[in-house]
Amino acid sequence: MNRYLIGRIGQALLVLWGAYTVTYFILYLLPGDTLAIMLSASGMEADGLSPEDLAKARAYYGLDKGIFEQYFDLLWRALHGDLGQSLSLNRPVTALLAERLPQTLSLAGLAIVLSLLGGIGLAYLTAYLQWRPLKVALARLPSLGFSVPVFWMGLLLIQVFAFGLGWFPATGSQGLASLVLPAVTLAIPSAAVYAQVLQRGFQGVWQEPYIATAYAKGLSRAQVQARHALRNAALPILTLVGLQVGNTVSGAVLVETIFSRNGVGRLAQEAVLRQDIPVVLAIVAVSAAAFVLVNLIVDLLYPYLDPRITHAAKVTRA
Amino acid sequence: MSKQPLIAVRDLSISYHAGRQATHAVKHLSFTVNSGETVAIVGESGSGKSTLANALLGLLPGTARVDTGQLWVQDIDVARATERQKRQLRGRVVGLVPQDPMVSLNPTLRIGQQIGEALSLAHGRRYAGVDADVKQLLEQVGLDNPALRARQYPHELSGGMRQRVLIAIALAGNPQLIIADEPTSALDVTVQRKILDHLQQLVAERGIALLIITHDLAMATERADRLLVMKQGELVEQGPPQQILQAPHHPYTRALLAAAPAFSTRRRPRSATPGTTPILSLEQVGKRFELPKVKGQAQHFVALQGLSLQVYPGQTLAIVGESGSGKSTSLRIALGLEAPSQGRVLFDQQDVTGFGWRAFRPLRRRMQLVQQNPFAALDPRFTVFDSIVEPLVSFGLLKGLALEQAARSLIERVHLPVSYLDRLPHELSGGQRQRVAIARALALQPDLLLLDEPVSALDVSVQAQILQLLDELQRELGIAYVLVSHDLAVVANMADHVVVLHQGKVVEQGAVDQVFERPTSAYTKALIGAIPGHRTPESHINQIAQIAY
Amino acid sequence: MTTATRPHTTQAAASAWKRRSRLQRFSQALSPLLRRPGFSLALLVVLFALAAALVPHGLTSFDPYATSPAEKLRAPDALHWFGTDELGRDLYTRVVYGASLSVQAALLAVGIALAGGLGLGVLAGFAGGRTDAAIMRLIDVLLALPGLLLALAIVTAIGFGTVPVAIAVGVGIIPGFARTTRAEVLRVKTLPYVEAARLGGASWARTLLRHVLPNAWGPVAVLATLDFGAAILATAGLSFLGFGAAPPAAEWGTLIANGRHFLITAPWVSLLPGLFVVAVVFSLNHLARTFEENAR
Asked: Is the ipTM of this structure higher than 0.85?
């Protein structure tokens, strides 16, 4: 087991390093003229500078070094907690992140809880009902959930619940009340995914022979669903939670923009608008780290849910 | 002992409705089962026996409808009962031992929990002594170390142990009737025999009635007090086993008897004409797999050890064994799909051991395979024509009109109509698909045909037809066969020579007469003894078979 | 079939089985589907969107860029089906013209994803071993980068506009295709009929082209349809955030973003285009699911 753990952690670190490298490649090497972008992000125009000033700027941004040297330099500093300086805001990126992260974490946390409750609840209900028309209608609901653009849903909810009914504030980052609408908006796509997968899971599980064995003991439908069907149908959900981290982060960018919240998501949007490369790199790296960490935990938790999974290697040919 | 029968079925008709189509699964069925009796319902697929089993438990799906008749279990008409009433019956009056033990237990719950659930239901609620009762039940059904087993999960137990657990679950509710659904299909023959013996013993001790649902006529005649033969939803014959065996009335019963491998006559075996060389021979072949380094477990897994055999042209060699015996491995080695760890493989005197794909390719024209599962052996997107001629196309042997001619003659050879060439696999039955697979294997006109359990996935009457076809092809074309099977009755009818494998080693080898009539190893004797219907001495079987004809 | 009747049967048989062409088989499978109202409606919506993408002027007579300040922020009525925006432009027309940008972007995105994902998936599934492991690690890396953020990075680097957005979204969808293709290839590779073909002398190339790919493409086609809808949503999201085509281009996301400011007074400016997007994506999902159910 220990061997497996070490292997898995190593794999996770490898993926994280890969993600950082790919993003670095995209941001620093893809553009035609990285210097011009960085200058405009800082509010200066490349054309208006003399060659000596350009050379100085180049040295300042660290762009005069060779590609690899630059890369390792950035990586080294990142590992030590220095994520660079925001070009447009002129503040250390680490400080910016530390400021904004709690907002996003609370939003994401509440959204994940809501999506799990909503998704699992909907699927459970759909599987339990036996009246066809309602069952079919509920079964289609998750698909509607994925068809709706997150940002549009946010606007709709603002229109109805903030402007129309006045129950919740439309914008702002303070207090629980301002967290509700954004969290619900963010939760909907994930809830749809969980509901869809669990519905399929139930459909599959109801056909299994051990369900017949359960009925033959004399259990009622409700008992069979709760004690036998759910445990087996819900197995894929844990893996999904790991994968949905990415979607949640993406959604957070849109949701925070609509609801004008001061989180990392809106920071990302602003950074892209101003082409603030170090900030974008830092945010992407941090969310990649979150993704990798959550999936690692999920992977390690899996054997506790499904007793058939043991982390053993397979038989090979001799 | 009550005078009223435990189960009384009167004029029962059940049909399934999908869209506008109605399938009549059970038609005007009437029979009774008394307490303590063992009754067997024998039928092939489509006979309605599974529908009947579900109906007795009140577990018919929503698409099923009871058209006429009544189904009395004790004093409740299950056909018209409410869900609550049916639930009262399940577990407490009627218990079920399901068909496939590998998938009939919840994989995420411990054994003890699953049995405990049945016990708690019988008592009405969870009670204090449930754990002790669980252990007691586990002991009664013959499991060692009950305390450990109760804590384990289903995937940690073997198939036979899981079947015993299912029996324990059925017994937990103290039922009056146990329905055993196809109790012989999923397990090895020796294991089956032990478990069924044990089940019958437990049932007799407690005075429980046993209803066996099966396609295996031989097993039914051996164990039941009374047999019911069903065909396409109708009851065609009823009576004690002796009567069914010696004086069957209905032509279908007679056909079943004739088709059952255990009862049919053995054809005259052929011996090798002196001087011919074997077309295939394996010399001291062994195969070992590396296992990952886990503490406390072996490093290697020996699938096969010291296997030597010869197959002569025009003859059939059968490799017999249960699961894990290495028979599939030996076939794959012969085909060149795997390289042996030791030993040599010679095809027509040529050493082909460890040949790569390219080197082996020319030999493929002379050696072909018919696979086990006819439902997955044909590409679902290929028409029958495409599937049959594919080997010819792969080797670039024929084109255009000649190709069509070849397809036509091949399909006629396996006795299928020419119009089937245009069909897709899902439009064919299992037996028909197997015929197509055989036609495909014959396309290159091989000298040797390897058959991996060619009939185990088919109904009994269809099995007989396919075996007959194979026999006919061998006589006409002089092809040698290597037949791998776990079913000794099939082997007895087809083979000239037999090799018996047990856990990778050869325990018996020789001409078929010798192996069956004078077996030397204990394992072979146990295997032969486990064949249903084979308990009686060999002469008695032939007597019965002759009468059946 | 006795020998006496042989000559007749061969002639009759020659015309009796005429191999049904693939097209015939396909249309035979399609017709019962068309009878289902849900399917037909979904197909209609998708075809309308495609028509809007290709020939927008055929569906509306207004000019999407013609401003008319006198008619600003009108509610939907008989003349302006979706109402007008803050510059008096007919919203329905803007939506229809926006289809061409958004649908094209989504097609480009899915095209990139298919090319990359299919290639990687087939390679990983077929080759196995180290190649498989290496490719899966690459996919893991791509997965670790959330779709929108990856898109943001790409857009930061190569600039804003419809094409960069499409490329960004496409790259983000590659992992899903690669994984699905790989899983299907692995599944089919071990099926008995593939083994039978190999034993019949078929080369790997023949096995791949004639057996593995045709049987593996089903779930991939379903995923492609689903992802087409997802690509529409993703490109709309990016243009909503301001990274799409510059105004006055009428991309759907930009339309919705525009209307944000008038939510209280004129909600239809944001909500109706969004509703249209929902209809198109939902129809695509419905089509995908119907295909999936049918393939089973």
From this structure: no
